[in-house]
């Protein structure tokens, strides 16, 4: 899989980009892969936790950025950060 650093208009666009890149992987194994989702969150951290006008980031609990294997039935916050549409400056569920 090849990824590139690029600016996405929103998280939905990022999710569609990743869906294309991840098509060849087995879905269930991919959804549970802590390393892949955590790495993707770090790689695109500037997109999922952008700096505000003062250059500061609003950082939340670790579970919003790093996949945990304890939540297998639903998407963990790290997966939702990439998959759900971007809402500027409000990262509420």
Q: What does the model show?
A:
By secondary structure, this protein is mostly helical. Helices cover 40% and strands 0% of the residues. The protein contains 5 helices and no strands. The longest helix has 11 residues, at 11-21. It is globular.
- The total of beta strands comes to 0
Regions with pLDDT < 50 over 5+ consecutive residues? 85-93
Please estimate the helix content.
25-40%
Number of helices: 5
Distance, first to last CA: 30 Å
H/E series: HHHHH
Structural class determined from secondary elements: mainly alpha
Summed up:
This protein is an all-alpha fold. It is built from five helices and no strands.
Give the secondary structure arrangement, pairings included.
Elements: H1 11-21, H2 27-31, H3 34-43, H4 45-48, H5 77-83
Write a concise keyword list for the protein shown above.
93 residues, mainly alpha
